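Hello,

I think I submitted the zinc ion job twice by accident. Can you confirm which output corresponds to this input? Input:
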Amino acid sequence: MRLKRLWEKLTELIFPHSIYCICCGNIIDESRPYALCNDCMEHFRWANERTCSKCGKLLSENNTKELCYNCQENKHYFDRGFTCAQYGVYEKKVIFNLKYKKKTYLSKIIAEIMYDRMLIEEIKYDIVIPVPIHSKRLKKRGFNQAELIARYFTRLEKTTLNSKYLIRTKQTDVSKKLNSEERKLNLINAFNINKYDKSDIKGKNVLVIDDIYTTGATADAISKILKNAGVNKIYFLSFVAGGDLIIH
Ligand SMILES: [Zn+2]
Ligand SMILES: [Zn+2]
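Support: Only one job matched these inputs. Its output is below.
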């Protein structure tokens, strides 16, 4: 087992990462966009069809409204959400490789996908803030994937990254499957503003970045705090979004 891991580490050093598909791990042509093989690229549910005008999720076929079912029933505190793909089997693999297999270099490719996604939107923002994770989880995992993605994203965008302003004050249990209401309750007092960070964000427009958007409970909890701090507009950008199509 150890040898296998060592071999994996060595091959990562010898070969550039982009020769492997970020989803299935098959060897690919280096010129493949986003380092996705043809099969994974085709199976990805890109959010380029009809999307919710509030949260940005793909709308289910039988939903003729402009809002997804979740947004029809819930008031959200952010101004607008955007996402790149619908959370499914293929998208899950990429997230799993990043978060749990600790392939942190994937954050760079994910940031490229998110950067390209935002090119088609005409919104302006001054600061990019990643969704923070609790210090205990950070210690355990070794990195905050949202921060890594936001770091590469701001390099491409040439905008300001602020990963210190917002802090996570409560750790939530990720192993539990929670419904929308339970998520909301779970996130009460989960975030706060870092009193040592003196950034002035009053009147600014902020883009919050995370890897996944589900019910919007995290985005709302953060948005309430940022709006109270005087932020003007809050946009939320995720790599993948899921929930609405799965629940309904
Ligand atoms: Zn693949
Ligand atoms: Zn929605």
